[in-house]
Structures
1.
Amino acid sequence: NAGVIQTPRHKVTGKGQEATLWCEPISGHSAVFWYRQTIVQGLEFLTYFRNQAPIDDSGMPKERFSAQMPNQSHSTLKIQSTQPQDSAVYLCASSLDRLGGRVSYEQYFGPGTRLTVL
Amino acid sequence: AQKVTQTQTSISVMEKTTVTMDCVYETQDSSYFLFWYKQTASGEIVFLIRQDSYKKENATVGHYSLNFQKPKSSIGLIITATQIEDSAVYFCAMREHYNVLYFGSGTKLTVEP
């Protein structure tokens, strides 16, 4: 049973270049989340999809960052015109999902993509 | 304001002893969910244990257990019979009405032989 898959594991870009990060959630999981981890800010929520629909992108920087989930088997996080402050580990997580109620499901994390912007 | 606070930056214990890691949280929701995750040296984040706010019994999984004190908005993680491989960074997290997780800053645990 494969866990969450993220590619690439490491990416180095020059300032101003574009970076696209890929995530394949666990099969059967309907919720996909993106987080960013830095030493200074810790683990920060970026955005969340349920059944491929964007639900909450309140953590996404308003400029340059975008996320999509074109099908149930993958999601992408795109950063345009990367800046050195975008350097971080970007983590994707997936979980089962259910609207409201006394139900919550654990999120399972991928290994992350370490983005370095020179 | 931080929703989840872990004040212990690092803890060092001897192997086979018991360790408790603290976590306090803030929420206005009457129903919420609390989780502990472990991040290994390789960077892997692993789910350990959860506590649903409406449950009075403290959760236990293997050698992990929780000390849930709802009036104090506190959810401590207890690891008994610690092993070298328990050395990692431990994160407390909370989910309110959405599925978004709010994480604490983490506690680095070192288990010495």
2.
Amino acid sequence: SQKIEQNSEALNIQEGKTATLTCNYTNYSPAYLQWYRQDPGRGPVFLLLIRENEKEKRKERLKVTFDTTLKQSLFHITASQPADSATYLCALDRGSTLGRLYFGRGTQLTVWP
Amino acid sequence: DAGVTQSPTHLIKTRGQQVTLRCSPISGHKSVSWYQQVLGQGPQFIFQYYEKEERGRGNFPDRFSARQFPNYSSELNVNALLLGDSALYLCASTSPTGNYEQYFGPGTRLTVT
């Protein structure tokens, strides 16, 4: 079965620094890899999607990379702000079944002033 | 536009009872997926429905069942509740076009005592 690991349960950084979160997976390579943000007691919110044939994707202060050889994705938040504090989830999609995602347990990011 | 809606927001049940959770997808979305999220873990896939047909099922016992209605809303039923069923139950709908990102509802917090 698919296994997804996110590098740490918690990451604490100072405001203005770049946060880097890691997602590693085993077994088959996903067609898509997605990143979501989740605030306490709320549903996940989609942030970025990267396809297996893409190396990098950017959106404002967010950047995602995808290395299918290493079976790893890195998620970067540049110029981090306290409002970025949340849990960030990595999710894999094989692409064959629309709407079925395999999630990691998430990394709780805290940005302190 | 209204997002994904779920009802109820909170629910307390006793072991052995049955529960029905409801979800309305974003207008125009025909795919609905259900996830279970235990505290401290990522969401775990339960079911996916597309055009009123089950398209995927996760590793959950037969006590869990679901259906999708002609208006694409969905219900998740859990019979013979166990303490371990206590979790946040998330519903997500997927756009029929674009990038397969999922739009999550706020979830239903189920507590089994």
